[in-house]
Amino acid sequence: MVLFLTKTKEDLCHLDLVLVKTVIMSQTEHHIGKLRKVVINEGYSVEDWCREKCQDLGVPSMLPELYDSWEETLKYHLNLYEKYFFVNGEIWEAFDHIELDADDDIYQLTLNEDGTLSFTMRFYNGGTHLSECIEEELLKLNK
After folding, report:
1. How many domains does the chain have?
2. What pLDDT is attached to residue 24?
3. Which of 17, 31, 103, 109 has CB atoms 3.0–4.6 Å from 121's, for a disulfide?
4. Are residues 83 and 131 in contact, defined by beta-carbon separation less than 8 angstroms?
């Protein structure tokens, strides 16, 4: 239970908006965008790349207090779990990414001539999220 102390009627109106916003939990999401494979320097691991990316963005080490890896730090502390996807030792970056209104589930990856992948994902986020959908489809491509 959360207790809010208010002084004015306007505060109460704001409180109604806050409560409505926090009640909305799961919903269907529809994403369209492209993926490109991130080039990792020779001799670097995915974890090395994530550490360097976090440091470039000014994030201090939070290992092992908050996160088990730099990958987790990148995805969850920086909230980039819908930008970078990690599959079979590769990193894929989403770009030209938009989110639309949604109805039925769609999972689609299409290979482009330039080596990037275009994606369309529509799903109910009460049971999954974008990273799981994209990673599942990337695994299918590798089979």
Report:
1. 1
2. 54
3. 31
4. no
Q: Does residue 9 lie within any of the structural domains?
A: no
Q: Is 106 exposed, middle or buried (0-12, 13-18, 19+ CB in 10 A)?
A: middle
Render 39-52 in DSSP notation, one character per residue: P--TT--HHHHHHH
CB atoms within 10 A of CB 12: 11
Confidence (pTM): 0.64
Q: Is residue 67 part of a domain?
A: yes
Q: By the 8 A CB rule, do 105 and 124 touch?
A: yes
Compute CA 117 distance to the chain's CA centroid, rounded to the nearest angstrom. Answer: 17
The rounded distance, in Å, linking the Cα atoms of 86 and 92 is 6
Give a yes or no: residue 90 inside a domain. yes
Residue 99 clears pLDDT 90, i.e. is over it: no
Q: Which residues contact 67 (CB under 8 A, 6 or more apart)?
A: 73, 76, 77
Tell me the residue range of the domain where 120 lies: 27-141
45-79 pLDDT per residue, tens:
999 999 999 999 999 888 888 989 999 999 988 88
